[in-house]
Design a protein that fits this description.
The chain has 280 residues and is an alpha+beta fold. It folds into two domains: 123 residues, Orthogonal Bundle (Helix Hairpins), CATH 1.10.287.130; 147 residues, Histidine kinase-like ATPase, C-terminal domain (Heat Shock Protein 90, 2-Layer Sandwich), CATH 3.30.565.10. The strands form two sheets. Strands 2-4-5-7-6 form a five-stranded mixed beta sheet. The protein has a two-stranded antiparallel sheet with strand order 1-3. The radius of gyration is 29 Å and the shape is elongated.
C-alpha cells in the first residue's frame, strides 16, 4: 500500500467519522425538536383544558346563581306589589329570601376558596395548628345539625401539630361532616381516627355508617358541582363544591385523599396531612 492509498483510507475514515457525528447530532436535534414539540403540545393542551375548566366553572356558577337569585326576585316582587300580603306570608317570604341569601353567600365563599387554591395557593398563610383541635372545632359547630338527624360523631384523633392553614383544615373536617349529614341518612355514626403511623404524615380515616354512594359517583366525588342527590343538596343549601375544596385543602397540606364505600355500609375517606415542620 503506497502513501496515496493510506491518505485515501484516512480521508474515508475521517468522512465516516464526520458523517456518524453529524448523524448523531441530527438525531439529538430531532430528539430535542420532538421534545420541544411534545412540551409545546402539552402546554397547549393544558391551556385548553384550563380554559375549558374555567368555562365550565363559569357556566356552573351561573347555573347555581340562577335559582336563588330568581327565588329572591320572585319573593321581593310579591312583597313590593300592590297586592296585600298578610303577616304570616310576609314572614314566610322574608325567611325564604334570607335562606337563599345565605346560599348565595356560601356559594361565593366556596368559589373564592377553590379559585384561590387552584391559582394562588401560596397566599394562604401557614401557622402552628393542631389538626385534631380543628376537627373538634368543626364537629362542635355542626353538633346541633348532626343531632337533629340522630347522627353521633366520634372524634378519636390524637394531637396532630403541623405547620398549616387553619381555614383549610377547618374546611376539610366541616365539609366531610356536612356531606355525611346531607347524604348518609339519619341515626348513623361518624368516626374519625388514625390508621397508620408515619414520621412524615398523619393518616386519617373518616367514615360514616350511612347509605354510601352509587359506584358511578365515586370517581367523580371530588369534582366541582357534582351532587349525589340534586334535590336534597339544594334543599340543604349545598354548593356542590364541598368535597372539591376538601381535596384541594388536603393537597395544600401535602397529602392525598380517596374515598370508597364501606363493606359494612356507609362511605369512608382515607387522607393524609404532611407533618410540615413548625417554624419558630
Amino acid at each position: 500500500m503506497d502513501w496515496s492509498d493510506v491518505i485515501l483510507l484516512i480521508l474515508v475514515v475521517a468522512i465516516l467519522v464526520l458523517y456518524i457525528r453529524l448523524m448523531r447530532k441530527n438525531k439529538r436535534l430531532r430528539q430535542m425538536a420532538d421534545e420541544s414539540n411534545r412540551l409545546r403540545l402539552e402546554a397547549t393542551e393544558a391551556e385548553r383544558r384550563n380554559r375549558q375548566l374555567k368555562q365550565e366553572m363559569t357556566s356552573n356558577i351561573a347555573h347555581e346563581l340562577k335559582t336563588p337569585v330568581s327565588s329572591i326576585r320572585g319573593y321581593l316582587e310579591i312583597l313590593l306589589s300592590d297586592k296585600p300580603v298578610d303577616d304570616e306570608r310576609r314572614r314566610y317570604f322574608l325567611d325564604r329570601c334570607f335562606r337563599q341569601t345565605l346560599r348565595l353567600s356560601d356559594l361565593i365563599q366556596d368559589v373564592s376558596i377553590i379559585n384561590k387554591l387552584e391559582e394562588s395557593a401560596d397566599l394562604f398563610p401557614r401557622s402552628e395548628v393542631d389538626a385534631a383541635e380543628v376537627a373538634k372545632e368543626a364537629i362542635g359547630d355542626l353538633a346541633d345539625k348532626a343531632a337533629a338527624v340522630g347522627i353521633t360523631v366520634g372524634n378519636n384523633l390524637p394531637a396532630m401539630p403541623l405547620n398549616g392553614n387553619h381555614e383549610l383544615l377547618y374546611c376539610i373536617f366541616r365539609n366531610l361532616v356536612e356531606n355525611s349529614i346531607a347524604y348518609a341518612g339519619s341515626d348513623i355514626n361518624i368516626v374519625l381516627e388514625t390508621y397508620k403511623d408515619s414520621p412524615d404524615c398523619y393518616f386519617i380515616h373518616y367514615y360514616d355508617t350511612g347509605k354510601g354512594v352509587a359506584d358511578e359517583y365515586l370517581s367523580r366525588l371530588f369534582d366541582r358541582f357534582v351532587r349525589i342527590d340534586e334535590g336534597r343538596s339544594r334543599q340543604n343549601g349545598g354548593t356542590g363544591l364541598g368535597l372539591s375544596i376538601v381535596k384541594h385543602s388536603v393537597l395544600f397540606h401535602g397529602g392525598e385523599i380517596y374515598a370508597k364505600n364501606r363493606a359494612e355500609g356507609g362511605l369512608e375517606f382515607f387522607f393524609s396531612l404532611k407533618k410540615t415542620p413548625i417554624r419558630n
